[in-house]
Recover the amino acids of this structure.
């Protein structure tokens, strides 16, 4: 049998990859990166970086960065809540998770964005739990009815109570790291357990150009020490906060991400790091940051290639749209991003469900996007030689009127070769009319209602649940959020 | 093997679309002198009913449907001569003439319906595709059918479904036959419009409809 080829996209010429990395390293050495965090600066200085305390600038020599690259694992393995199922983040593995931290939810009935409540957040986790092509959860909504002081921790708490899947999350405040880590460790029965079986990825975004804020640098240091994988989310905007050329933005991307990687490694050698991002093309008329622009996707696919060249796990914000409702734009931007990201071998693709420049989530879009991801996974499987001979024997006894429908070969292979339509319309016209001319959005809404109705909470040991409740309640008290009413979950 | 185990195996062979097993089991039933009516009604028919259920639940797709129907056909081909020899009349659901109307060469859907009707206990006379309208009536008259099933895949040829009903009327034969229509452009509304007796959207629904019109459970 001939080996199945995994279809693959490579945006950059190998020589250009090397050139971009080289300029990125030169930038780190000559210009350096501003790190607004005392501890991270000290750690970098101790490791040999040139530190200017006054300007909070760290200049990282090539040798230091290369050492840090060498000590970073090329793959990270996440485990689900029960610890039974593992997900390799590395190589050309692809895992989708919903776009994170939306501030609004698109209401299906009114077709308008509204603030999301805790009830919505609960439904979000339940829905994502049932959507099989999203391997990871994300703390995807910010609930307005929860005090801002505990919002980051609270999302993770609710999610951990409701879902088995690993999480992509992150901190909004430095103080939140501790309770969030404690929640994760409680699930694993201690910090050692969490270190050996990571349950969540923490996103940390540098501020372009060339700056790591106090919050995000601290998150890198803390996560590295706890063995929690950090996802580096460099996010230049072409011509606004990074050079306007795509290759130029990639140079900055490399410099920012490698500085983040170095902070992780000097905090603890061998700390898991994911080379990610959320850069975008910058719209020169509207002043917006379109995630659905083809140039955004080109930057993503290109830095993923660079991440692979550096032997790092990769991440990107793709499979999302800037449309405001679930219209054709929402579909094509999402599908194009999902396909390109997967073909580029991006390990963690965050985005499904998202609209409006990463600010809105839609339950219906999540259901539709799950189907897009199903198609993309099929695409990645490629075209296999199933039999030897491939098909000659199926023509035995050939007659002009023969049908393959009843051929044993059909029944043997069709489910492996072809995926079901899901929510996609494949009705003949008359059947579609008879069924009420239903759009995919209406079908998705019905699917969401059905899924929420049949969701069954995956079992969680009572003692763990009690620990989670205790950690959340204590953090709420300590943050001045008072006695936070914990939801009935 | 007890009788119940044999009957269960027959049902399983149909559900699995295992033509060879379905035929072998039928041959064994003939040789060991089992009650062949019981074999059909307690062995094979529950199998094809299960296939219909699995289709409706979304578990089964066209390849399962057609292979199971063909497994049923193979079993019946073994049982039929023996039933005739023993002069046992089976409880047939009725005789059906089926075909794709003239001008239209699409026959995948029609073949599926024909196979499923046959598996469902109908005696099916399949005239093929691009069938002249007069041929449907001639055949139905000749074999004493109670039902005519018309398939059309094109909006340009579906009008022939209506024309056949007109032809039956002209010949004073309209009340003698139940006329069922199917195919991508057809619909319940279309069936009503042309005065057909029914429309089915797929092969499983067609068998249900045909059975209810034939007064069979």
């Amino acid at each position: 049998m001939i080996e199945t080829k995994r279809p693959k996209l490579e945006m950059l010429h190998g020589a250009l990859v090397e050139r971009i990395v080289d300029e990125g390293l030169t930038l780190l050495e000559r210009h350096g990166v501003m790190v607004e965090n005392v501890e991270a600066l000290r750690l970098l200085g101790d490791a040999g970086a040139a530190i200017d305390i006054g300007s909070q600038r760290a200049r990282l020599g090539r040798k230091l960065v290369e050492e840090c690259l060498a000590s970073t694992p090329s793959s990270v393995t996440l485990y689900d809540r029960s610890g039974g199922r593992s997900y390799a983040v590395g190589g050309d593995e692809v895992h989708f998770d919903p776009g994170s931290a939306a501030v609004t939810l698109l209401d299906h009935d009114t077709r308008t964005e509204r603030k999301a409540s805790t009830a919505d957040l609960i439904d979000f986790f339940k829905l994502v739990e049932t959507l099989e092509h999203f391997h990871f959860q994300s703390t995807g909504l910010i609930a307005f009815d929860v005090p801002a002081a505990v919002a980051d921790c609270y999302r993770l708490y609710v999610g951990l109570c409701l879902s088995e899947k690993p999480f992509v999350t992150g901190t909004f405040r430095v103080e939140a790291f501790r309770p969030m880590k404690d929640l994760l460790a409680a699930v694993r029965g201690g910090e050692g357990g969490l270190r050996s079986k990571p349950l969540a990825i923490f996103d940390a975004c540098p501020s372009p150009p060339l700056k790591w804020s106090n919050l995000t640098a601290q998150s890198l240091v803390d996560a590295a020490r706890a063995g929690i994988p950090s996802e580096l989310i460099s996010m230049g905007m072409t011509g606004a906060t990074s050079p306007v050329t795509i290759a130029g933005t990639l140079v900055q991307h490399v410099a920012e991400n490698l500085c983040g990687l170095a902070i992780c490694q000097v905090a603890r050698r061998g700390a898991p790091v994911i080379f990610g991002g959320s850069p975008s093309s910058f719209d020169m008329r509207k002043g917006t940051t379109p995630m659905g622009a083809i140039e955004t996707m080109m930057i993503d696919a290109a830095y993923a290639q660079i991440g692979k060249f550096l032997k790092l796990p990769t991440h990107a914000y793709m499979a999302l749209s800037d449309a405001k409702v679930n219209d054709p734009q929402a579909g094509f931007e999402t599908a194009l991003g999902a396909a390109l990201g997967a073909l580029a071998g991006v390990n963690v693709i965050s985005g499904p469900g998202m609209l409006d420049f990463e600010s809105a989530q839609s339950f219906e879009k999540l259901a539709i996007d799950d189907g897009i991801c199903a198609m993309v996974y099929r695409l990645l499987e490629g075209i296999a030689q199933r039999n030897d001979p491939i098909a000659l024997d199926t023509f035995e006894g050939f007659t002009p009127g023969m049908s393959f429908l009843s051929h044993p070969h059909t029944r043997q292979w069709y489910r492996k070769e072809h995926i079901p339509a899901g929510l996609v319309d494949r009705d003949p016209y008359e059947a579609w009319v008879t069924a009420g001319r239903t759009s995919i959005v209406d079908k998705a809404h019905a699917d969401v209602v059905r899924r929420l109705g049949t969701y069954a909470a995956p079992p969680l040991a009572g003692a763990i649940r009690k620990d989670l409740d205790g950690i959340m309640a204590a953090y709420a008290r300590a943050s001045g959020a008072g006695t936070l009413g914990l939801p009935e979950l | 093997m007890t009788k119940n185990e044999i009957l269960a195996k027959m049902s399983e062979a149909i559900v699995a679309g295992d033509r060879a097993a379905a035929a072998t089991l039928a041959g064994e039933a003939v040789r060991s002198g089992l009650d062949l009516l019981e074999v059909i009604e307690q062995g094979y028919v529950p199998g094809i009913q299960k296939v219909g259920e699995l289709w409706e639940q979304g578990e089964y797709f066209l390849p399962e449907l057609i292979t199971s129907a063909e497994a049923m056909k193979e079993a019946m081909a073994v049982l039929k001569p023996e039933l005739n020899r023993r002069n046992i009349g089976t409880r047939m659901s009725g005789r059906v003439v089926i075909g794709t109307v003239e001008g239209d060469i699409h026959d995948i859907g029609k073949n599926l319906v024909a196979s499923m009707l046959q598996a469902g206990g109908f005696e099916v006379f399949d005239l093929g595709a691009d069938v002249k309208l007069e041929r449907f009536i001639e055949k139905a008259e000749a074999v004493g059918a109670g039902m005519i099933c018309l398939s059309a895949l094109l909006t340009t040829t579906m009008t022939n479904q209506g024309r056949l009903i007109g032809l039956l009327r002209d010949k004073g034969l309209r009340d003698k036959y139940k006329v069922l229509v199917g195919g991508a452009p057809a619909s319940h509304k279309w069936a009503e419009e042309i005065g057909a007796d029914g429309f089915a959207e797929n092969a499983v629904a067609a068998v249900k409809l045909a059975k209810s019109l034939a007064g069979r459970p």
Summary: The two ends of chain B are 30 Å apart (CA to CA). Residues 103 and 130 of chain B are 5 Å apart (CA to CA). Chain B touches chain A through 19 residues (CB under 8 Å).
